[in-house]
Amino acid sequence: WSDEFNGTAIDRTKWNFMIGTGSSEGLTNWGNNELEYYTDRTENARLENGNLVIEARQEAYGDRQYTSARMVTQGLATWEYGKFEARVKLPYGQGIWPAFWMLGSTISSIGWPSCGEIDIMEIRGQNPFQNVGTMHWADSAGNHASFGTTFNSSVSLAAGFHTYALSRTATTIRWYIDGVQYHEANIAGGINSTQEFQGQFFILLNCAVGGNFVGSPTASTPFPQQLRVDYVRVWGQ
């Protein structure tokens, strides 16, 4: 499976859009106190020069002062094991939160964190020298558990394109940047109640504004912000 983003319009057979603020799903700002309103407008998501552009804008829309896009393969494509990779050029600035990540397909029935979450690329815009790779799940008592690490780059990851990848087998999850592994997790036999990572997951791409992870933008945060994606490729089941 792949999307090379070489057409003239986003392929709706590969991507769905999440619209709004999350309130329709019983969440508060997608569960993270984010500030944006997600749309499927070309102002917020489009193809441009062979790239997907997800653009976060400072503008009044709905009841918000920011807009962006959140694209998912949910309902169209899911995978159990394999390698998942995107070549990405990041935005940056206080309060900007781009991500390439995965959620368990059971989220609609059992919710988060029991469905499982894997963050492949997650950046605090105020520190584009660091990428956070993390897995989230529910432990045996149903409480949120997580395991992750921070990749520290000698150059700003927003200065050019980089590849962010994840491989998942029945026993191991591994994280990579530009082909170099920097983190590994053992999920063999559902160790530490990680059995949710044996199931089907879908892909998400988004650029949030504000939220618990990054805080709010400031007057010095430049807008618009663009998350540029050259491709998303999957080798898997």
Core attributes:
10-stranded mixed sheet; 7-stranded antiparallel sheet
Give an overview of the whole structure.
The chain has 237 residues and is mainly β. The protein is 2% helix and 48% strand. The strands form two sheets. Strands 1, 3, 4, 5, 6, 8, 13, 14, 15 and 17 form a ten-stranded mixed beta sheet that branches. It has a seven-stranded antiparallel beta sheet with strand order 2-7-16-9-10-11-12, with no helix packed on it. The longest helix has 4 residues, at 107-110. The chain starts with a strand and ends with a strand. The mean pLDDT is 96.
Give the helix/strand layout.
Elements: E1 2-3, E2 16-17, E3 36-38, E4 45-48, E5 51-61, E6 64-68, E7 70-72, E8 82-89, E9 96-104, H1 107-110, E10 117-122, E11 130-138, E12 144-152, E13 161-168, E14 172-177, E15 180-186, E16 201-209, E17 225-236
Parallel strand pairs: 3-6
Antiparallel strand pairs: 1-17, 2-7, 4-5, 5-6, 5-17, 7-16, 8-13, 8-17, 9-10, 9-16, 10-11, 11-12, 13-14, 14-15
Shape: globular
Beta strand %: over 45%
Largest sheet: 10 strands, mixed
Number of helices: 1
Q: How helix-rich are the residues, as a percent range?
A: under 10%
Q: Could you tell me the radius of gyration in angstroms? A: 17 Å
**Succession of helices and strands:** EEEEEEEEEHEEEEEEEE
Count of extended strands: 17
CA distance, first residue to last residue: 10 Å
